[in-house]
Amino acid sequence: MSRALISVSDKEGIIPLAQAFVARGVEVVSTGGTYRTLTAAGVPVTEVAEVTAFPEMMDGRVKTLHPMIHGGLLALRDEPSHMEAAREHQIGMIDYVIVNLYPFAKTIENPNVHLAEAVEQIDIGGPSMLRAAAKNYRFVVTVVDPADYGLLIERLATDAVFAEEERFALAAKVFRHTAAYDARIAQYLTEKAGVSNPESVTFSYELQQPLRYGENPHQQAAFYRASGVLAGSLASAKQRQGKELSFNNIQDAGAALDLLTEFDQPTVVAVKHMNPCGVGTGVTAAEAFARAYEADPVSIFGGIVACNREVDEATASQLVELFLEIVIAPTFTSGALEILAKKKNVRVLELDMAERKNEGVDLRAVYGGLLVQDRDARALTDADLRVVTARQPSEEEWADLLFAWKIVKHVKSNAIVLAKDAQTVGVGAGQMNRVGAARIAIEQAGERAVGAVLASDAFFPMPDTVEVAARAGVRAIIQPGGSIKDQASIDLANERGIAMVFTGIRHFRH
Ligand SMILES: NC(=O)c1ncn([C@@H]2O[C@H](COP(=O)(O)O)[C@@H](O)[C@H]2O)c1NC=O
């Protein structure tokens, strides 16, 4: 007679599966809680304690860790010495293993959970059985994912035959599962132990969705989310309409959201190729959008628009006038959704960006390696600000400087942002020299550069950026400072009547 060992923390869906085993003439063996669930449902089950002739003990820390179990999982059925050992010790074979583990990840989602409570949720016996059974995939069918119960039930109802490739695939899934489970534990304990730059790192991500392709059609790609679903992350967004998100959409939307979280007042961000092309702040979402649009009515074409307030009919009417890839907002009025529905392809995402936290790690893959750093979460405080010129910025200039500083942090380096009246008027992104970025931003601003402010993500290595800014009519500059040639830039700013503020903070973004 075949035997199935069922030991599950999440009991959902387990009764029909156990019934399918019984109907097939397979004996079901279970641990305490699972045994009680199945018995209560009238399914005949043998308790593990009966098989091991040992009671479950130490608050369940020891239940299945026994040769009567592990021998039955690991014995090579085609190796006579293994089978002889099994006979000698009266170890019965186990042919199916259905296990899901203690909910460690769920437990640590609670920020107030005590270490002891989290540690108690580290499953020991479950992974041991899964690994043993998966190692012996030639003889054992191992199911860790409740999504596979259906397949198992169906197969038990027909021929109960599993091809070796199927058992192998299930085994690989088991090792992915236990690896991710252990990665989460290692990450949590490493954090608790206060270890930085550990000798090895394992990050665990779960498939959110396969993507049609990557950055280009010939590149295969998929989107993985951080373990669980982080509030405010794209994985938690609700898509109300439109085509499936693409690889580039996800990157651009992420960039738009990162920038948007800098702002509390109603703000709209338009992003193209990971850079903001227009940002506007206003009293209402519609006003903020109008400013973001006017900032650069050309580049917004085919862009991503993110708004940190509900999108109403007035805003939606402006949005549908354009070709956009994505519109993101915390909510949309039903009228706004009706208006947006006229543009079937535009992806409309509802996402509570207020929940988004600028914390955690920033991972960048390089050939043969991975760079790991903290996210750039350094916010500007009053104490950071130092006016280095004779002229102080006016009140309006201060507002524009702080506005532009929030944005330049999210523009690829070398980055220059020109802003005026709560609106970007020029963005110079990703240039190989700083004055080149300034020239692009100034050219884009045109007449609007007169009276605008300029923000730079890093210091001026020479005064040429001040020179081009002054010629264009820029009135105030914000930059980190720290160049050995700072004084030359300050002198030139004084000569041209420009107010200049140092922040002492660099915001490179490569
Ligand atoms: N200690 C053991 O021997 C052991 N054997 C199985 N478990 C786990 O116990 C859980 C099921 O327990 P129960 O059937 O008592 O509700 C499963 O998540 C399983 O992975 C164990 N628990 C933890 O390590």
TrEMBL record:
Domain MGS-like: 1-144
Matches recorded under HAMAP family: PurH
UniProt name for this protein: Bifunctional purine biosynthesis protein PurH
Domain of life: Bacteria
Associated pathway: Purine metabolism; IMP biosynthesis via de novo pathway; IMP from 5-formamido-1-(5-phospho-D-ribosyl)imidazole-4-carboxamide: step 1/1; Purine metabolism; IMP biosynthesis via de novo pathway; 5-formamido-1-(5-phospho-D-ribosyl)imidazole-4-carboxamide from 5-amino-1-(5-phospho-D-ribosyl)imidazole-4-carboxamide (10-formyl THF route): step 1/1
EC number, as in UniProt: 2.1.2.3, 3.5.4.10
GO cellular component, one term: cytosol
Name of the coding gene: purH
